[in-house]
């Protein structure tokens, strides 16, 4: 019996089979390749063998057999692009393209285990959105897609961070507990761990987006607390057509709110050198919220305010009267006394109330920072990214900057509009080098990624706030001196930087075992608190002064200063063993160590992952346990915010999470897939603000408090109805509870149960249908539907200060549409209409959402549209 091994199977056999094919000796091709495919070829050789067999079967008109071999080839090499392969036929290309768009094709993901693997065998719950999904649905930015995904609640503020996105029922101050990456390189801000999911990221170069649900600290360390979102960009070859050396793709649009954008990607190749460059610009005035009372800047609103209630003094009344030398007959205050003649109150008079009211009204008149005072919320974003690949080396850079109004974080009795100087300008820069080398063919690969990244709040960033009587920035003492309200302008600056190196090893000793391991070192210099310059007078003309050069921080006079050196070391290993063909077991562990200066940091952390994946026939069953941690950010540790939070807390511990999950995936009917995940997560040592003693009174401080408990279900159903129609849908159930708020262990006074986590909808349902029409599929119509159930706030929830009437934000439904017409193979036009039925609804405010200095709601956009042009040359 012959033995087919490496001694008689190898590249020479591939070359011999290719020669036989070229000469028309088709039967001999089968005899050469079939035996070696069973037990002789390496993975690379198998890919080439399947391609030759496919072409051979096509040559003898056996399309079915050819399709089977092409499927095998794509399973092993899903990135294969036939248009760049000069050796294949038109029929071969057509079958490849058909299969690449079909659901039955194996989908591979790289974000779970830091290596490519079958999504059905990955040790986590994962979703993938392709570039085709993004185009068909009419997404013009990355943030928009979260409204259509299971497991996410969105509070869209259109403010400094644009949107707070809460994954799996965990409400936080910002989007800082989901790790965001582009091609595996992290994007979260260093200072606050923020994700700026705004409009700056281009979409013309997105190949797919992978969403990992549940803790991922086993592979990524701190901050992959709730999950991971990884944007995989297209390869330069994706833009270069057959027989060309240069390719260009462009995506541009114009729509409602004077929104306009353009992003362009250009790629070129010369021998083994490949280069690509992507840029994007985005501008919008955003929707005008001045029709809503809290953003109208209408002086008449002050007629509704009870100044007597706000400014009359009872506590400390005697001291107030003495300090301000108030006597009987004072125009602004009357003095209340008890039977013994002791001062018990200082009561604001009608004259005093009218004076304070009129003073507040005058603050809304005239110019502020060069423009009339009123609502405005403009944004402008800029992005550029480049990469150069030479053989095994890839060099690249990325820079982006946002200019974003922040009035929607608050209201017109607190902050000014963007035209009046109230803008926030985050900026990030990245430079990286990647070396990837196959050391032992099909067995050992090493990848080293070195990067230097800075995250910054540009020193043109300003927060402009009104200091008046109704918001209590001015007091009765100020009124007695006839102090006029004014607009305070504060310039901010923050910059942090990090050098990071990761060495990753992929090892496959045999066909049943694969191992991934790595070592990371991060050396950071992170600013403790903002550098600020405060100008306590109304700036009628536009004015700028550099907080970077002249600003000060509360930490400037603290020993060690305002810059904190950090060293982080992480080592991880994960192995997957195929017990038999249908059963795989994954075990992983990561060690992380952190030190800040000489004595700070969290020390050591260990985070495991255990997963069992069983794939009998068409079923996929996963059981997963994972633990993760969220390191306290520098913002949490060192930042203060006068007048409410006056004490920092450098000793914060990391938050911890334990997640237990089971998922079932199967095909109920042909061309359909149903995936159901059930999970229970426990979060501990949650970081939040609590009240603590300070200078004979109290102030807020960040502290580790209690726990949160989230139980949820995610269900995804996709169905390819016919060649022309496809359906997607998903459902999310979330039961999120919390046992502490402001540091105290509490329960709802009525139900005696744990608090409901505010802003989280108990039910979400999303669905979409896509249809293609006309010859060559020239017309594509996509309809999407979203349903979000009511979201609780106020008493009995973790957001007790939100004054939303009835204690909940009502349920709402949306319909969105995108119609795409292919003018030529290189030019497509698209009409996007969002919120087709013009539903009127609001998202809950973020952070405390108290309706005073922080908005309790953000009214969302009504019907809006965009005309889009997509070019590929």
Structure description:
It is built from 13 helices and 46 strands. 14% of the residues lie in helices and 45% in strands. The strands form 10 sheets. The chain has a 22-stranded antiparallel barrel. A 5-stranded mixed β-sheet has the order 3-8-9-6-7. The chain is elongated and about 115 Å long. It is mainly beta and 873 residues long.
List the helices and strands and how they pair.
Blueprint (H helix, E strand, L loop, with lengths): L10 H12 L3 H14 L3 H17 L3 H14 L13 H11 L7 E2 L7 E2 L6 E6 H7 L14 E5 L6 E5 L10 E5 L2 E2 L19 E8 L3 H4 L6 E7 L12 E10 L3 E12 L2 E12 L22 H5 L5 H7 L9 E5 L5 E6 L1 H13 L4 E2 L2 E2 L6 E12 L2 E13 L17 E2 L1 E15 L3 E24 L8 H5 L5 E25 L2 E15 L3 E5 L11 H4 L12 E18 L2 E14 L3 E15 L5 E11 L3 H5 L16 E12 L5 E13 L2 E8 L2 E8 L3 E13 L4 E14 L1 E2 L2 E2 L9 E2 L6 E11 L5 E10 L2 E2 L15 E2 L2 E11 L4 E8 L7 E3 L12 E3 L4 E9 L1
Parallel strand pairs: 6-9
Antiparallel strand pairs: 1-2, 3-8, 4-5, 6-7, 8-9, 10-11, 10-46, 11-12, 12-17, 13-14, 15-16, 17-18, 18-19, 18-20, 20-21, 21-22, 22-23, 22-24, 23-25, 25-26, 26-27, 27-28, 28-29, 29-30, 30-33, 31-32, 33-34, 34-37, 34-38, 35-36, 38-39, 39-42, 40-41, 42-43, 43-46, 44-45
